[in-house]
TrEMBL record:
The keyword Protein biosynthesis does not apply. This is Histidine kinase domain-containing protein. InterPro entries: DUF6272, HATPase_C_sf, Slr1658-like. It comes from Desulfonema magnum. Keywords: Kinase, Transferase. SUPFAM superfamilies: ATPase domain of HSP90 chaperone/DNA topoisomerase II/histidine kinase. One of its GO terms (molecular function) is kinase activity.
Length: 188
């Protein structure tokens, strides 16, 4: 993938290890695990990550938020990965006031315009509840299982900030999704 052709959507920051107090990385080569098993293991992986970071950070609300965000991003990575020998990578990085979750996977370059259009609609939408309802209605009407509400829910209900980095190639595009979770307690 050519770094100079990278497309950034949202406020994406590179995972520079010197900027973090801690980091944890899982990499899975899709060719060695049946896609169905990989799909099922996303919840186990997300549960482990939630438990691990809750214990490390002693932040009560982090486990359910982290579990949901990781499960959703891993589900998308497994669903959209197209090249069997490509790595699906999840990296969690801890900074003083936030947890950054990077999930990297492959995607069919032909489908990237559709992804960019959807991502822009999510990032630009002022009323995420309205977009959520619209996507649910569209999925129901078309009979499609792909409602696209998971990413909306990550922002709307879990308070995460999302961004993407796309490194396009002729057939395969590397997609890195970043979810940033604020660790500071919200003032009431």
């Amino acid at each position: 993938m050519n770094e100079s052709n990278a497309i950034v959507l949202g406020d994406f920051i590179e995972p520079e290890s010197s900027d973090f107090e801690g980091s944890l990385v899982f990499s899975i080569k899709a060719a060695y695990i049946e896609k169905g098993k990989l799909w099922k293991s996303k919840d186990i992986t997300a549960e482990f990550l939630g438990d691990f970071w809750k214990a490390m950070l002693d932040v009560e609300h982090i486990k359910p938020t982290l579990h949901f965000v990781c499960a959703e991003l891993l589900e998308n990575a497994v669903y959209h990965s197209v090249k069997s020998d490509y790595l699906i990578k999840i990296q969690l990085c801890f900074k003083t006031d936030e947890l950054l979750i990077y999930v990297k996977n492959s995607a069919d370059t032909k489908k990237i315009e559709e992804l960019k259009k959807f991502v822009r609609s999510v990032l630009e939408e002022k009323n995420l509840q309205k977009l959520f309802i619209k996507k649910m209605k569209e999925a129901k009407k078309s009979g499609c299982k792909k409602s696209q509400v998971g990413l909306i829910t990550i922002i709307k209900d879990r308070g995460a900030k999302l961004s993407w980095k796309l490194d396009p190639g002729p057939e395969i595009t590397s997609v890195t999704t970043l979810a940033r979770i604020n660790l500071k307690k919200k003032e009431t």
